Amino acid sequence: MKKCILLFSILSLSLIPLKAQKYEITIRMEQPKDSVLYLAQHFRDQFIFIDSAQLNNNVFTFKGRQKLQKGIYTLVDASKKKSISDFTIDGKTKFSLYFDKTLRPEGVTVKGCDANKQMFNYMAKNSVARVEMKEIEQQQKSKNATTKQIADRAADSLTKAMIAYQDSMMLKYNEFIFFKLQKEFDIENVPDSIKDKASYYRTHYWDKIDLSNHDLIYTPDLFQKMNYYFFRILYHSDADTICKYADIVLDKVENDSTMMRYFMDFIMPRYYKSTKNIGWDQVWCHLVRRYYEPNKSHFTTNSDVVSKVKQAAFLEKSLIGALGAELLMPDTNQSSDINNWISSHKLPYKYVILWFWDPDCHHCQEQTATLKTLYDSLSIAGTRDFEVYAVGYESDVDKWKTYIKEHQLPFVNVGGPNVNIDYQEAYNVHGAPTMIILNEERRIIMNKTLPTSSILPFLRDYEQKRSIGRR
Q1: pLDDT band (50, 70, 90) for residue 191
Q2: How many domains does the chain divide into?
Q3: Average of pLDDT values for 268-286?
Q4: 323 inside domain
Q5: The whole model's pTM is what?
Q6: Which of 23, 153, 192, 335 is paired with 468 by a 20 to 30 Å CA distance?
Q7: What does each C-alpha distance from 213 to 15, 184, 222, 414 come to in angstroms?
Q8: CB burial class (10 A; 0-12, 13-18, 19+) of residue 176?
């Protein structure tokens, strides 16, 4: 892969301990929009506020005696929500920054700090190059062959020039934090000889990052890299793949409670709370079993570990691949004889769709109607290879039976107070509608509620993957 001039950012900075000293940072603005600015550090997608300064003749002055570690700092607007600009503390703690009305790197003047001067020069050069590249890209779309050829040569020339500039700046100013971290957070180049480039990229994504440096947690780069890795690169992968590559980075920090907490506190709630992403509950359970249960999460309490392990045990019953619990329930005849109850596992179809629904639920009514349409059309065509085991999620049996009769629901309709097990616990059913799909072995192959239009594509995709797996 070639380096791309669009991928360098101001945010690749770090914090390194520095002897305590006074600081005096003057911020001059041509057109200030606020009467107060805040001095802060990044922490994940939030800010840690350190100081504030009032506007005085278009000048904000931050002045104090506390320690300012080497690294990244940011100017935050009066709302405390928007970062105006980042800068570095890299040895000098008394300097000034002047921003013109654009607030862009090209309009920043630095006095008293060469580290910031070279950083803003570098960013300004890249900013101008990005504008040039956008203009060239428009010309590359031209239908005129000559214009396109000229634009292609210009793009290649600009890219080479910027790579040479970037490399020279990194070499010349490699003692400055900004340039050190530019190299550390640079995108991993995948060798041309590698066939499975996606796998290589996922495997080596963290190779350049020194995760033993706790101070990286105060840079937006680490957050962005973590967020991109888990929720972009791995986002559409199956659960096993996510677990495999998540372990690559988490194993690197499992003995470092500071870094482990930084990652876990961010990713765990997102995997646990997801109701739409298939397999994310499996990822959450995997992380609990691998890192919390063996007491590798030293940052958390014993009660939190016990709670997570207990919840994992509950969720594991309904994870994809788990053997679905057999349900025995009476149909609308409501027989009290268990021998007359219908089994979810003994239906003469390849697949079983467990459909937990409530006739009083408007969404259930809509989804049940569309499911009926699909069911009827496939039955008429003679191509239906699934049965719907529809569990009435309604305590009023007469209301449930009336709804089935009036709407002529053709499913295997079961319900009422009699059931062999607690299906809410067995299948993690928290409400209606809930869909679970079982294969011919009655193992769970889907534990998320699919739109009716997605059922057949899902089953076709499942069949195709199984067919490939058998080869």
Answers
A1: confident
A2: 3
A3: 90
A4: no
A5: 0.78
A6: 192
A7: 9, 12, 11, 58
A8: buried
